[in-house]
């Protein structure tokens, strides 16, 4: 085998090893409770004293993130609004 052939063989092996050992980017799993609590915090920032953030967070925990509030959807945040 010529020296060029050896170099190409080494490069090919190195390339295959690099592909085999490279791990693909793994996306974080979707956690609805985390999203729910983050949305509660966002709504509290947006609406201030009009929004009961702790009650929203308690709801996230109670329902395990199944009812995610959307700050722009009155129906989803109505239970957490204060009359100041």
What does this structure look like?
With 84 residues, the chain is mainly alpha-helical. The chain is built from four helices and no strands. The chain has a domain at 32-80. One of its GO terms (molecular function) is ecdysis-triggering hormone activity. Its main location: secreted. Residues 1-22 form the signal peptide.
How many DSSP-defined strands?
A: 0
Distance between the termini: 85 Å
User: Which bin fits the share of residues in helices?
Assistant: 55-70%
The average pLDDT value, as a whole number, equals 84
Task: Note the topology.
Blueprint: H1 3-21, H2 32-47, H3 53-62, H4 74-77
Helix pairs in contact: 2-3
Compact summary:
Helices cover about 60% and strands about 0% of the residues. The protein is built from four helices and no strands.
Key terms:
84 residues, mainly alpha, 4 helices, neuropeptide
């Amino acid at each position: 085998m010529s020296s060029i052939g050896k170099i190409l063989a080494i490069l090919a092996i190195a390339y295959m090893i690099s592909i085999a050992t490279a791990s693909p980017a793994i996306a974080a799993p979707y956690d609805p409770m985390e999203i729910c609590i983050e949305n509660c915090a966002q709504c509290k920032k947006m609406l201030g004293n009009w929004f009961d953030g702790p009650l929203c967070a308690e709801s996230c925990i109670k329902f395990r993130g199944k009812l995610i509030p959307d700050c722009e959807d009155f129906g989803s945040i109505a239970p957490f609004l204060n009359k100041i």
